[in-house]
């Protein structure tokens, strides 16, 4: 061990210097140990301090307080979180004999947030990713020249199950990718929700009778009912320069008969890349919120499902729907920046 001054504050200041230089935590620890001795700072301590610096906290002094020092608490909390990314703050507080608020503060300072696992439809191929980039670039350019988001009607469907599993979350920082898992098969009792909405709210929705599936004929009938709903609820949109229709690539949407029906109605269908729920406002916004609302619920009948959906839609203010639609350009831009990879959603 070197006899040089190796006070904690000095070592932390050196760690901050390496952080500012863009050095990795492990490399910073290695360089410090070469100068001051092999046991001056270990890699985990360096990583914890780098997390703290990334969160914007550059105070390298120990705060005077009763109980365990701040950094010691941070170390122990990180050890627990790294062992179990699903652990609750109350369990951490109980184990370390500190307050739950202290745990929250430490996790925040370390740059950690609750993030939910993301369900993805399948692994993207290289072509899928290139298509996603190309379409996102096209839509971004078009929206800059001719903003169309307030003329857009979003159409989508979702199975509403009588028994709803609550999604899992884990602790993660902004630089970490969230775990993606394949969506489980829905074998439980369920009914299909068909919904159409825009930046102002729900325009029309239908909950199909139990056991009924959506086919092209039924979908075209729904489009006629949607046209009536638009005329009643969105007269300005009905009389505008043209409705822009957002559809995904499910079978009833892509049939020749459906496309012909949409042309007869005078509605333009915008591009949407296949296998891209992260670019569909219903999936990344409306249905995500709905899943959290219904999470853990057991419903006895189709009527119970419909009542809960009615409550959910009624409780959402206009700003909720506007945020979901106006987020699209940011989603397009992020897909381009991430070379076509799936985006993760933070809850």
What does this structure look like?
One of its GO terms (biological process) is DNA double-strand break processing. GO terms for molecular function: DNA topoisomerase binding; double-stranded DNA binding; histone H3K36 methyltransferase activity; histone H3K4 methyltransferase activity; single-stranded DNA binding; single-stranded DNA endodeoxyribonuclease activity. There is one protein chain. A 5-stranded mixed β-sheet has the order 7-6-3-8-9, sandwiched between helices. It is elongated, with a radius of gyration of 26 Å. It folds into 2 domains: 8-115, no CATH class; 118-337, 2-Layer Sandwich (Nucleotidyltransferase, domain 5), CATH 3.30.420.10. A hairpin with a 2-residue loop joins strand 6 and strand 7 (201-207). It contains 15 helices and 9 strands. It has helices at residues 8-20, 25-36, 43-54, 70-83, 89-96, 100-109, 126-145, 216-233, 235-238, 251-254, 256-265, 281-294, 302-315, 318-326, 328-337, and strands at 112-116, 118-120, 152-161, 169-173, 180-182, 190-198, 201-207, 244-246, 268-269. Helix 7 (126-145) crosses helix 15. With 347 residues, it is α/β, with parallel strands linked by helices.
Task: Give the SSE layout.
Elements: H1 8-20, H2 25-36, H3 43-54, H4 70-83, H5 89-96, H6 100-109, E1 112-116, E2 118-120, H7 126-145, E3 152-161, E4 169-173, E5 180-182, E6 190-198, E7 201-207, H8 216-233, H9 235-238, E8 244-246, H10 251-254, H11 256-265, E9 268-269, H12 281-294, H13 302-315, H14 318-326, H15 328-337
Parallel strand pairs: 2-5, 3-8, 8-9
Antiparallel strand pairs: 1-4, 3-6, 6-7
């Amino acid at each position: 061990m070197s006899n040089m001054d190796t006070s904690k504050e000095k070592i932390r200041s050196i760690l901050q210097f390496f952080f500012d230089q863009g050095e990795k935590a492990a490399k910073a620890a290695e360089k410090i140990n070469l100068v001051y001795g092999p046991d001056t700072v270990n890699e985990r301590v360096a990583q914890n301090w780098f997390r703290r610096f990334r969160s914007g906290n550059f105070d390298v002094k120990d705060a005077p307080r009763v109980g365990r020092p701040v950094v010691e608490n941070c170390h122990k909390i990180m050890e627990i979180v790294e062992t179990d990314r699903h652990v609750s703050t109350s369990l951490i507080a109980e184990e370390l004999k500190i307050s739950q608020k202290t745990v929250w503060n430490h996790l925040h300072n370390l740059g950690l947030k609750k993030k939910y696992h993301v369900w993805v439809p399948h692994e993207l191929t290289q072509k899928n990713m290139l298509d996603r980039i190309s379409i996102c670039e096209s839509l971004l350019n078009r929206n800059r020249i001719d903003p169309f988001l307030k003329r857009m009607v979003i159409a989508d469907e979702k199975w509403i199950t009588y028994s709803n599993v609550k999604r899992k979350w884990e602790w993660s920082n902004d630089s970490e990718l969230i775990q993606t898992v394949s969506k489980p098969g829905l074998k439980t009792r369920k009914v299909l929700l068909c919904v159409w909405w825009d930046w102002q709210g729900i325009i029309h929705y239908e909950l199909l009778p139990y056991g009924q599936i959506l086919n092209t004929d039924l979908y075209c009938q729904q489009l006629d009912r949607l046209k009536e709903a638009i005329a009643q609820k969105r007269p300005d949109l009905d009389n505008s320069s043209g409705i822009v229709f957002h559809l995904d690539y499910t079978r009833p949407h892509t049939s020749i008969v459906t496309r012909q029906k949409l042309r007869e109605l005078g509605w333009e269908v915008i591009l949407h890349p296949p296998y891209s729920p992260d670019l569909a406002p219903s999936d990344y916004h409306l249905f995500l919120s709905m899943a959290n609302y219904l999470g853990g619920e057991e419903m006895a009948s189709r009527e119970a499902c419909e009542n809960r959906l009615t409550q959910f839609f009624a409780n959402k203010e206009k700003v909720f729907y506007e945020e979901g639609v106006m987020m699209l350009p940011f989603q397009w831009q992020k897909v381009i920046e991430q070379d076509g990879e799936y985006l993760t959603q933070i809850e």
